Structures are given as structure tokens and as C-alpha cells.
UniProtKB/TrEMBL annotation:
<protein>
    <recommendedName>
        <fullName>PTS EIIA type-1 domain-containing protein</fullName>
    </recommendedName>
</protein>
<keyword id="KW-0598">Phosphotransferase system</keyword>
<feature type="transmembrane region" description="Helical">
    <location>
        <begin position="276"/>
        <end position="295"/>
    </location>
</feature>
<dbReference type="GO" id="GO:0015293">
    <property type="term" value="F:symporter activity"/>
</dbReference>
<feature type="transmembrane region" description="Helical">
    <location>
        <begin position="189"/>
        <end position="210"/>
    </location>
</feature>
<feature type="transmembrane region" description="Helical">
    <location>
        <begin position="108"/>
        <end position="128"/>
    </location>
</feature>
<feature type="transmembrane region" description="Helical">
    <location>
        <begin position="249"/>
        <end position="270"/>
    </location>
</feature>
<keyword id="KW-0597">Phosphoprotein</keyword>
<keyword id="KW-0418">Kinase</keyword>
<dbReference type="GO" id="GO:0016020">
    <property type="term" value="C:membrane"/>
</dbReference>
<dbReference type="InterPro" id="IPR011055">
    <property type="entry name" value="Dup_hybrid_motif"/>
</dbReference>
<keyword id="KW-0813">Transport</keyword>
<dbReference type="InterPro" id="IPR001127">
    <property type="entry name" value="PTS_EIIA_1_perm"/>
</dbReference>
<feature type="transmembrane region" description="Helical">
    <location>
        <begin position="12"/>
        <end position="30"/>
    </location>
</feature>
<feature type="transmembrane region" description="Helical">
    <location>
        <begin position="307"/>
        <end position="326"/>
    </location>
</feature>
<feature type="transmembrane region" description="Helical">
    <location>
        <begin position="81"/>
        <end position="102"/>
    </location>
</feature>
<dbReference type="InterPro" id="IPR036259">
    <property type="entry name" value="MFS_trans_sf"/>
</dbReference>
Length: 639
């Protein structure tokens, strides 16, 4: 969790450096010494290019997510992209902030020719890195609360972007002074700043790539088949909860990105206090140390929909204060607090809702799209950033906030235009986002837990043949060798106790006659042992069900207790995980029989053979009392 969170220091720093401050650099220093008319044309070209590319990414980012989802390497699905794409995008960021080695001031034609492919390459690789980073959350755990901890940790370390806001003016100004003797934001300072952020980005990419580990659980393993682009877009289009979560976040992002992108201009050209711009970095930095750690705690008592609504109301109030008192510093600081503090809560609520729609989509459509679904959020952020860059460039030129302009040279019309875009339009968008999320998003923490439970029950009912680990091809080959008719496989009792026919097993509702091909054992101990040599195919999050495959290809599902899914893992200890190999007699699970019975559930262990027509004959023990290791059943498996 530490390594995952640490990585977002660099990730968030790279994001805000490009998404917010690149246009500040473009409008203030990139074309220093270039005739104003030509500089404005180049600014318009960059603004238009960024807008077009970001809009095209509506289609590109899901494709990137699909590529990540279909990645299968010895290092996992995400690590190659986190390290490789993270390194390349960081290096290209430094190149862009150098004005492509000063080419921006030498030749407009060659600068344009070089800028376009460099920017596109940067954007694609940054997308791979960002999609891989957030897409890894559901690969680390399928528990909604644990996901909130990982997301909270990552959001906590997003203070990297706030540090950028705090240091950008001092660093750029100081380095510029060292190289030129001038106290302003010049090209040397911006180049040094770009290199600094690139170094941090590369370090953090290696930390997350080398320091995190994907979890091979049942729900991920059962959907290891590759997803075509057609299937991917179909699944996304039919995941209504993902769409209703994404849409309000998009329009919220439009307003928020426009305000954030113009915040520097407010301090410099409206308030005439550019030296105080660091406040907009300090406030969210301090807030981040509290909001992210507090979110999982608050979320235990308050639903994330409530957290989202209260946070959005705070930002709406901030806009109202900025509209009526932009010249009053104490009121502006108050508005900054109301504006920045709740953003972490809003981000957490949205990213966790999107993450939970992965299982919702899997249950509804039969397709699990981890990186694709979570590619939606960075895609929306980049679309918002594109709008921000376009708006910043347009407002800067239209209001005269470029080059050597000062607050004294601003006109009332320019100030009014600034307020309209930065505050009024953003206020309307935030109100719209609030109402859409509250009334259209139905997937809650409770609903998600029900979905995961239903998925696992469905998996148990339909069998686990699709859940094999990627490296289990040998066992599969043995089952399907041509020429053989059937193999007889012995299954040992996984627990000591009294054997019971399935027809006589009484469930938690006092109903008899369980369906399926199997046998029950009323246990006299609280330990489950391996019934043969094989591999763990799946372990439910509740730990009461484990799926196994023998080295001969027989698949067995062991249910520990009836109704014990409601215990959510309490009283269970697993000694193996999904994908792990074992030998006959190895301890797989421990369960507390007293806790199960005190909770009002049955502690009966049920052993099921799950391969349907492939199991052609079974011969169950006639012993009433069995010890673990005794032969429980002989099964003939069709080749």
C-alpha cells in the first residue's frame, strides 16, 4: 500500500504540471522574443491541438485500457506499463518544457513539426501509465473497504500536485534569476522545473512497478480470456452505472479544470498578488493530509453518496464567495478552503464508485474490464484538462493576460470575461453534477457487497473450469490428451467428521436436499486439508469457499459451512491463496466452529465436483465416520 501510494506523488505532479501549468508556460515564456502576432498564432495552434487530441481520447483511452487488460506477462498486467510508459512520458514532459531545446524561439515551422508528434507520444504514454496505475486497484483487492484504503492512500499522496503549486513560482523564478539575473518566470526556470518533475515521475514509476503485487483471485481469474474491442465497447455501453458515474464527473471536471487553470491569472492579473499564489498549493496540501485518511473512517458511518453531496455543496459555496468578493483576500482564502478541501472526498467517492462498477458490469454483461473501466476516470480528467488548456489559452489572449501584461493593464471587460468563465459557468456545472450523481448513481457500498456475493455464488454454481491460473497449462493438457477415455481420480476427505449424503444435508434455512454432485461432512475439527495434489483455483473473499484442481484435472469446490457467507470471513483463516500449488494433506483453511454456530449458521462442510458432464461416474465412501486423508470419493473424469 505504501509503494502504491508513493507512486502517486510523481503521478499527480506530472499530471498537474502538464494539465494545468503547461499553458501558463506556453503563454508566458515559451515564445519569449517571438513577435506577438506570431506568438499568438502558435499559442492558438497548441491550444487547438491539445483540445483535438484530448477529445479524440474519448475513443483512445478505452482502447489503451483494453490493451492493458489484455496484457499478460511474467511481471503481471500492469508493471510493464507503469515502468516503461511512466519513464517515457516523464522524459517527454521535460522535453516539452524546454521549448523542444529552445526551438520554439528559433523556428516556428520546425517547432510545429516537432511539437505535434512529441506531444501525441507524450500523451499516449502518459495515458498508459495513468490507466495502469488506477486500473491496478481492483487487482489488489476485491473488497470495497480495502479498495477505499488503497484509493485513500493514493489520493493522500496526490499532494505531489499541491507541492508543484507551492514551488512552481519560487523554483522557476530562482533558476531564471541564476541564469539571467532577471526576477521573472523565464525559459531557464521552466526547463529546470520540467526536468525536476520528470525525475520525480521516473522514480515513482519504478517504485510502484517494483513494489506492488497483483492478487490472483477467483473473480479475476475466471475472466482471463482476451476481450475484443467490439466486446469492450459493448460492455462499457451497457454498464449504465459506470456511465452515470462518469457523466457528472465529466461536467464537474470541466468546471473545476477551468477554475484551476485560471487561478494563477486571478492572483496575478485580478488581485495583483502573484506572490500569494502558493496559497492555492498550501491549502490542498494540508487538506490532503486529513481528507484521504479520514475518508475510510467517515465512510464507515456515512455513505459515499452523502460524502459526495456535502463536498459538492462546499465547492458551490466557494464559487459564490469568489463571485462576490474576489478582491477581498480573507474571503478569497475562505473560498479557497471551501473549494480545495472537499476535492479529495469527491475524487474518492467517484473512483470507488467506478471501481465497484467493474463487478456490476461483470455480473450484468459477463465481461470484467478492470483497466478499461478505470481508464474512464483519467480519460475524463484529460478531457477536462483539454478544455482547461483551451479556455486558459483563449481567456489569456481575449482578456490581455499574456506576455508582459500586468493587473494595472486589465480592462473591466477582461475581468468580467475572467469571472464568467472561471466562476459562473463552473458554478452551474457543479450544481448539475451534484444532482445527476445523487439521483442517478444507484451502486452503493451495500449494493456492491451484494454483487460480489452473487458473483461468487454464480461461480460456485456454474463451476470453476474457467478460473485456472495462467501457468496451469500442464494439468489442462493431461486432461485433454487424445486417445484416452477416462481417468479414475481419488479425492481424500478434507476434514474429519461424519459423512452425510447431500440429500440429507440441512442448510441454514432448515431445508434439506442440496443440489449438485457431492457429499457433506459434519466436521469434528476446524481444519480443511488438501484432498489431493493440485492447485488453488479460487478463494472467495469470505474465505468460506475454496476451489481446487488436482494435477489430474479434477475440479472440486469445498464449502465450509452453510450461510457462512454472511460472516464476511470472520472466524476463517486461509493458509493458501489463489494460484498456489499444494500437496495432499497440506493445511488449506482453518475455521472456528463455535463462531459459526454462535452466529446461527451450520458448520457442515460440503465437497462438490463441479465439472458436470466431464465427471462420468462417482463412487462415494460408505464409511459413516471419516478422518481427513481417508478416501472420500473416486471419480471418473472424461478425457
Amino acid at each position: 500500500m505504501f509503494n502504491f501510494a508513493f507512486a502517486n506523488i510523481g503521478g499527480s505532479a506530472v499530471y498537474i504540471t502538464f494539465g494545468t501549468y503547461f499553458m501558463v508556460y506556453v503563454t508566458s515564456a515559451m515564445f519569449t522574443g517571438v513577435p506577438k502576432a506570431q506568438a499568438n498564432k502558435l499559442i492558438a495552434m497548441i491550444t487547438g491541438l491539445i483540445l483535438i487530441i484530448r477529445l479524440v481520447e474519448v475513443f483512445i483511452d478505452p482502447i489503451i485500457g483494453n490493451i492493458v487488460d489484455n496484457t499478460n506477462t511474467r511481471w503481471g498486467k500492469f508493471k510493464p506499463w507503469l515502468i516503461g510508459a511512466g519513464t517515457i512520458s516523464s522524459l517527454l514532459l521535460a522535453l516539452l518544457f524546454s521549448g523542444i531545446f529552445g526551438l520554439s524561439r528559433i523556428s516556428a515551422t520546425w517547432f510545429t513539426i516537432m511539437f505535434i508528434p512529441i506531444f501525441i507520444t507524450f500523451d499516449i504514454f502518459y495515458s498508459f501509465r495513468d490507466v495502469s496505475y488506477w486500473g491496478m486497484v481492483p487487482a489488489l483487492t476485491e473488497d470495497s473497504h480495502e479498495r477505499s484504503l488503497f484509493t485513500a492512500a493514493a489520493n493522500f499522496s496526490a499532494f505531489g500536485q499541491n507541492i508543484v503549486t507551492i514551488i512552481i513560482v519560487p523554483v522557476v523564478t530562482y533558476v531564471t534569476f541564476v541564469f539571467t539575473g532577471s526576477h521573472n518566470e523565464g525559459q531557464p526556470g521552466w526547463t529546470a522545473f520540467g526536468i525536476l518533475i520528470a525525475v520525480v515521475g521516473i522514480i515513482c514509476s519504478f517504485v510502484v512497478g517494483l513494489g506492488t503485487h497483483e492478487k490472483h483471485n477467483a473473480l479475476r481469474a475466471v475472466t482471463k480470456q482476451k476481450t475484443s474491442l467490439k466486446d469492450m465497447f459493448w460492455a462499457l455501453a451497457h454498464n449504465d452505472q459506470m456511465l452515470w458515474t462518469a457523466f457528472p464527473y465529466l461536467i464537474y471536471g470541466f468546471g473545476n479544470a477551468a477554475t484551476a487553470g485560471l487561478m494563477f491569472y486571478m492572483f496575478k492579473y485580478v488581485m495583483d498578488k502573484p506572490g500569494l499564489f502558493w496559497i492555492t498549493g498550501l491549502i490542498p496540501t494540508i487538506a490532503g493530509f486529513f481528507t484521504s485518511p479520514l475518508y475510510p473512517i467517515i465512510n464507515k458511518w456515512v455513505t459515499r453518496k452523502t460524502i459526495y453531496a456535502v463536498s459538492m455543496c462546499s465547492m458551490i459555496l466557494a464559487y459564490i464567495l469568489l463571485i462576490v468578493s474576489v478582491d477581498d483576500l480573507p474571503m478569497v482564502i475562505t473560498a479557497m478552503i471551501l473549494y480545495y478541501v472537499p476535492q479529495g472526498f469527491i475524487f474518492m467517492a467517484v473512483i470507488l464508485t467506478l471501481t465497484d462498477t467493474i463487478e456490476y458490469g461483470q455480473l450484468k454483461n459477463g465481461t470484467r474490464n478492470e483497466a478499461v473501466t478505470l481508464a474512464i476516470r483519467p480519460m475524463l480528467d484529460k478531457m477536462s484538462g483539454a478544455i482547461s488548456n483551451a479556455i486558459v489559452g483563449w481567456v489569456a489572449v481575449a482578456a490581455g493576460m499574456t506576455g508582459t501584461a500586468t493587473a494595472a493593464s486589465m480592462t473591466p471587460g477582461g475581468i468580467s470575461l475572467f469571472k464568467l468563465v472561471a466562476f459562473w459557468i463552473a458554478l452551474f456545472l457543479h450544481v448539475a453534477a451534484l444532482f445527476i450523481y445523487v439521483f442517478k448513481v444507484k451502486i452503493s457500498e451495500k449494493k456492491h457487497a451484494e454483487i460480489v456475493d452473487e458473483l461468487q455464488k454464480k461461480l460456485a454454481t456454474e463451476g470453476i473450469s474457467g478460473a485456472q491460473a495462467a501457468d496451469n497449462t500442464t494439468a489442462q493438457t493431461e486432461v485433454t490428451m487424445p486417445g484416452a477415455k477416462a481417468a479414475t481420480i481419488a479425492v481424500a476427505a478434507p476434514v474429519s467428521g461424519v459423512s452425510v449424503n447431500l440429500a440429507d444435508v440441512v442448510d441454514e434455512h432448515d431445508h434439506k436436499d442440496l443440489p449438485g454432485n457431492g457429499i457433506g461432512i459434519q466436521p469434528t475439527e476446524g481444519k480443511i486439508y488438501a484432498p489431493f495434489d493440485g492447485q488453488v483455483l479460487m478463494l472467495f473473499t469470505t474465505k468460506h469457499v475454496i476451489g481446487l484442481r488436482s494435477n489430474d484435472g479434477l475440479e472440486v469446490l469445498i464449502h465450509v459451512g452453510l450461510g457462512t457467507v454472511n460472516m464476511c470471513g470472520e472466524g476463517f483463516i486461509n493458509h493458501v491463496d489463489s494460484g498456489q500449488s499444494f500437496k495432499k494433506g497440506d493445511l488449506l483453511l482453518e475455521f472456528n466452529r463455535d463462531k459459526i454456530q454462535q452466529a446461527g449458521y451450520k458448520d457442515t462442510v460440503v465437497v462438490l465436483l463441479t465439472q458436470g458432464d466431464k465427471v462420468v461416474q462417482t463412487d462415494y465412501t460408505q464409511q459413516e465416520v471419516v478422518s481427513h486423508g481417508d478416501e472420500l470419493v473416486k471419480a471418473q473424469l472424461k478425457k
